[in-house]
C-alpha cells in the first residue's frame, strides 16, 4: 500500500508514523516543497522514501497535510493525477472552500474531506509523534460524495489510528470550529501580544508568570503559516466569534468600572460549568 | 513548631503538606470557617488538628490562605492575637491593599507579604498536593518592614519548599501581576462564556473541541470566591490590561475585515517569540 503524504510536518508526519505502525504493508512516500524537511523526515524514519507530486499516480492513499490555502491550490491537480482507486483526504481546519473547489471535479468521489482535531503547538517533521490521533475526534464532511469503497478505506485507517468519527456538513463545521478552535488561537495570540508589549522592557516580569499564563498563551506558539490561511478561509465566522468575544470582555470591563462584583462573581460561576463540558477532552 | 493554616484549601493545604514533610517538629493546626473542609483536611492527613482563630496566640507561624478580601478583613485581628515571635504571612494575589492595611499596626514587623505563583484550577483541601511550590517563584513585598529574625524564618520555609524568591514593592507587584496572571483568567473566563453561549443548544459541538481549546479555557474552572475579590482589589490595573487586550483584539478583527492577512501573519510571527519567554515556566 503506497501512502503519499503531501506536507511532512507535525500532522502529516504523525499520520505517517501511525499508518506505518498499523499497516504492515504500508510504504510511506513523503512530498514536501522543503528539501530540508524531506531529508529530516527520512533521517528520522518518518517516511520511507522522498517523492515528487507527479509520482502520486502510483499512490493508493494520498494525505494532504499542508496549509489550507495551499491545499485549495493543489487539490484539483492531485485529483487529476491519481488513479481511479486512490483515496485522497486532507486534514485541514476549514472545509467549506475545499469542498466547493472539488465539487465538480471528475474524481470528486476519490476525495474525502477530513479534519482530525489533534495537534500540538509545534511544527515540522521533528514534531511528529506516535499516537497523536488516538482518542481524538475526526470530523468528516460530505461523506456521501466519496465513493463507498474509498469511504471504507478511509474509515479503516481512522479506526486503526484510534479516532472517533463525527459526520458534519462543511458549512456547520466551519461555523462551529470557529468557536471551539479558531477563536482560542486568536485569544491566545492577542494575550501574548498584550503582555509582551507591556513588559518588553522588563524581562524579569516573566519570572512572575505561572502555569496559568503558560496554559492560556500556549497556542500563541502556533505556526502563522498554518493559521493565517485558516483565518482567511473562515473569515466571516471568525469575525463573528471575535465580535462576541470582544462584547463579553467589554461587558466584563464595564461591570468592573461600575464596581458590580456580584455580577462578575455570577458570570464566573456560570462559566465554571465548562468543567463538565471539558471532561473527556485531554 | 506550631503552624496555623488559616484557610485549608488548595494553597493552604499544599503548604501544610510540604511544611510537615520538611520540618519534623511541625504540628499543623487548621482554621477554616467551613467545618466540612476542616474535617476533610483532618481525614486526609493534611492537618494534625482542628483549631479556632483565638488559639493562634500559641502559633509560631500563621499562614493566611483565604480570599484577599477576607485576608484584609482579618489581618489586623490576627496580628493582635499572635505572640511577639510569631511570623504571619499571607499568600494572596494582590499586595497593595494588604500592605496598606497593616502599615500602622504595632505588630507590622510580624507580617511578611508573600505571593507564591503556584496553584491549579482546583480548590478545597482535596485539591492540596505535595511539592506544589517546588521550583515556583514567590514574590515578597516590603521585606524590609518585617523583623529580621522573622524574615529568616520565612525564607527558611520558602527555601525548604523549593521556591525562588523575588523582591518587589506592592504597587509594582499588583501592576505586573495584572498582566501575567489576572488578565489570563478573564480572557479564559470570557472565552468559555462566548463558546457556551453560542453552543448551549448544541452539546455535540464540544466533541469538536481539542486540547488547544481545553488549554485556553482551563482557567475558567477557577473559583469565583477567590477571583472576584482579586479583581476588586486590583481594579485599576486589571481595567487597564483589559483595555489593551480589547484594543488588540479589535485591531486584529479590523485587519481581518480589511483582508490584510499579511499583517495578521506578521502579528502572529512577532508574538511567536512567547516561546522563548515561556521557557522555564512549567
**Tally of individual helices of chain A:** 11
Biggest interface, residues from each chain: A-B, 90 and 91 residues
Q: Helical proportion of chain A?
A: 40-55%
Rg of chain A, please?
A: 21 Å
Shape designation of chain A = globular
User: Under the CATH scheme, which class of the largest domain in chain A?
Assistant: Alpha Beta
Beta-strand content of chain A = 5-15%
- Please identify the structural class of chain A as seen in this structure: alpha/beta
Distance between the termini of chain A: 32 Å
- CATH 4th-level superfamily of the largest domain in chain A: NAD(P)-binding Rossmann-like Domain
Spans of chain A of at least 5 consecutive residues whose pLDDT stays below 50 are: none
Q: Averaging pLDDT over every residue of chain A, what do you get?
A: 94
CATH architecture classification of the largest domain in chain A = 3-Layer(aba) Sandwich
Name the helix and strand elements of chain A from N-terminus to C-terminus, one letter apiece. EHEHEEHEHEEHEHHHHHH
CATH topology of the largest domain in chain A: Rossmann fold
Domain Prephenate/arogenate dehydrogenase (chains A, B): 1-282
Protein name (chains A, B): Prephenate dehydrogenase
Organism (chains A, B): Aquimarina gracilis
EC number (chains A, B): 1.3.1.12
Structural topology:
The structure is a homodimer of 282-residue chains.
Chain A: E1 2-6, H1 10-22, E2 27-31, H2 35-43, E3 49-50, E4 61-64, H3 68-81, E5 87-90, H4 96-102, E6 111-116, E7 137-141, H5 148-160, E8 164-168, H6 170-199, H7 211-216, H8 224-233, H9 235-257, H10 261-271, H11 274-278
Parallel strand pairs in A: 1-2, 1-4, 2-3, 4-5, 5-6, 7-8
Antiparallel strand pairs in A: 6-7
Helix pairs in contact in A: 3-4, 6-9
Protein name (chains A, B): Prephenate dehydrogenase
EC number (chains A, B): 1.3.1.12
Keywords (chains A, B): Oxidoreductase
Amino acid at each position: 500500500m503506497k501512502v503519499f503524504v503531501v506536507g511532512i510536518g507535525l500532522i502529516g508526519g504523525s499520520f505517517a508514523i501511525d499508518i506505518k505502525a498499523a499497516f504492515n504493508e504500508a510504504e510511506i512516500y513523503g512530498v514536501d516543497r522543503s528539501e530540508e524537511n524531506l531529508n529530516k523526515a527520512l533521517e528520522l524514519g518518518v517516511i520511507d522514501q522522498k517523492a515528487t507530486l507527479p509520482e502520486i499516480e502510483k499512490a493508493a492513499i494520498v494525505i494532504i497535510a499542508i496549509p489550507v490555502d495551499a491545499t485549495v491550490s493543489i487539490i484539483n491537480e492531485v485529483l487529476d493525477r491519481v488513479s481511479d482507486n486512490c483515496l485522497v483526504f486532507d486534514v485541514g481546519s476549514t472545509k467549506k472552500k475545499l469542498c466547493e473547489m472539488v465539487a465538480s471535479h471528475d474524481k470528486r468521489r476519490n476525495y474525502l474531506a477530513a479534519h482530525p482535531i489533534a495537534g500540538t503547538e509545534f511544527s515540522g517533521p521533528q514534531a511528529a509523534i506516535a499516537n497523536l490521533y488516538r482518542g481524538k475526534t475526526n470530523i468528516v464532511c460530505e461523506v456521501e460524495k466519496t465513493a463507498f469503497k474509498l469511504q471504507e478505506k478511509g474509515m479503516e485507517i481512522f479506526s486503526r489510528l484510534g479516532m472517533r468519527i463525527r459526520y458534519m456538513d462543511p458549512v456547520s463545521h466551519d461555523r462551529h470550529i470557529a468557536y471551539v478552535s479558531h477563536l482560542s488561537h486568536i485569544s491566545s495570540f492577542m494575550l501574548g501580544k498584550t503582555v509582551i508589549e507591556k513588559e518588553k522592557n522588563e524581562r524579569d516580569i516573566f519570572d512572575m508568570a505561572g502555569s496559568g499564563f503558560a496554559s492560556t498563551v500556549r497556542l500563541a506558539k502556533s505556526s502563522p503559516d498554518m493559521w493565517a490561511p485558516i483565518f482567511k478561509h473562515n473569515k466571516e465566522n471568525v469575525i463573528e466569534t471575535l465580535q462576541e468575544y470582544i462584547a463579553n470582555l467589554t461587558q466584563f470591563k464595564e461591570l468592573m468600572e461600575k464596581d458590580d462584583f456580584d455580577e462578575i462573581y455570577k458570570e464566573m460561576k456560570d462559566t465554571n460549568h465548562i468543567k463538565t463540558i471539558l471532561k473527556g477532552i485531554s
